[in-house]
Amino acid sequence: MFSISGTQASPRLDAATGVDFWEFGHFSIQLVQPGAEPSHHFMMPHLKLASALLRLCGFMVAFSVLPISALGQESTLPDAPQPQNQPKQANPEQNGQPAKPSKNHIFWVIPNYRADENTAEIKPLTPRAKFKIAFDDSFDPSAFLVAGALAGLADAQNQYDYGDGAAALGKYFAAAFADQAIGNMMTEAVFPVALRQDPRYFVKGRGGFWKRTGYAISREVITRGDDGRSQFNTSEIAGNAVAAGISSAYTPAANRSLGNTTSKWGQQLGLDTFFNVLKEFWPDVRDKFFGQ
User: Phi then psi for 109, rounded to 5 degrees?
Assistant: First the structure.
């Protein structure tokens, strides 16, 4: 149990009780067990270790607990350097304000590394940059959450013969994550590098709702080449087809069929189209609700 009392800063060992104190300012921390003699504390080895740690970080504790007025004393260190005034950076979590959303995550969860909101000057990506986008989209921490959500839906619908229980859910999660990662690699790296196509989604940002929605949907079949010209989006269409074919290798044998593979291909194209619409309007949402 911690007890804080009083309001100067020094460690102290009570010889009579064997209890360690850490005092700072007018405060002191004492580790005791209610209703027990400190000298016979049943967790005394742990308390001594805790006391050593407290001694190590005592100054950090003092600075975090004492009021600012108590720190306004002259330094006792010889030739102590004077800190220079530097502009303070705004902390989005100060005063209880939530952190502003990132451009790279839609609604804090969906990876959004493909979207490019600055279309004033577009430069072609190097092969390495294309693979980086694919890796970021595939292995961002939020990608694991998305895979978990998709796995839960698939498990609820009993899409595959994985059985029931935690083991089945684990198989659904592994399959969903593999589908995501392989699809991203094919559509954002392998095919774009081979065909010299740009895997990015360029936000239109102008026009009415339906016009921009139509533009977002059209990007599923139209993309930009590395030469700056519009091209058929072979990377998206063929890349997802190859990814769907690869997924049959880890699909239960009872569920392997051309129909199921085609269905998975269509589902992935539909998801990517939906995400294009989210990418198009995510800047508007950030600006409207977060001023970003």
Answer: -120, -50
DSSP 107: T
Q: How many CB atoms lie within 10 A of CB 10?
A: 10
Q: How far is CA 209 from CA 196, 212, 216, 233, 291, in A?
A: 31, 5, 11, 23, 20
Nearest to 243 by CA among 181, 164, 174: 181
What CA–CA distances, in Å, run from 110 to 137, 144, 285?
9, 10, 14
115: three-class secondary structure by DSSP: strand
pTM: 0.63
User: How many other CB atoms are there within 10 angstroms of residue 133's CB atom?
Assistant: 19
**Residue holding tokens 């294309």?**
130
CB neighbour burial string for 270-285, b if at least 16 within 10 angstroms, e if fewer:
eebbebbbbbbbbeee
> What span, in angstroms and rounded, lies between the C-alpha atoms of 269 and 240?
7
- Could you give the CA distance from residue 54 to residue 270 in angstroms, rounded to a whole number? 56
At 256, is the pLDDT very low, low, confident or very high (cuts 50, 70, 90)? Answer: very high
Q: What is the largest CA-CA distance in the chain?
A: 85
**DSSP run (H or E) holding 135:** helix 127-139
| Token code pair at residue 25 | 């300012």
* Helix, strand or coil, per DSSP, at residue 15: coil
In the numeric block, the tokens 């992935």 are attached to 268
Task: List Cα–Cα distances, 122 to 76, 119, 197, 220, 235, in angstroms.
Answer: 57, 6, 13, 19, 19
Query: Minimum mean pLDDT among 18-27, 60-69, 207-216: which range?
Result: 60-69
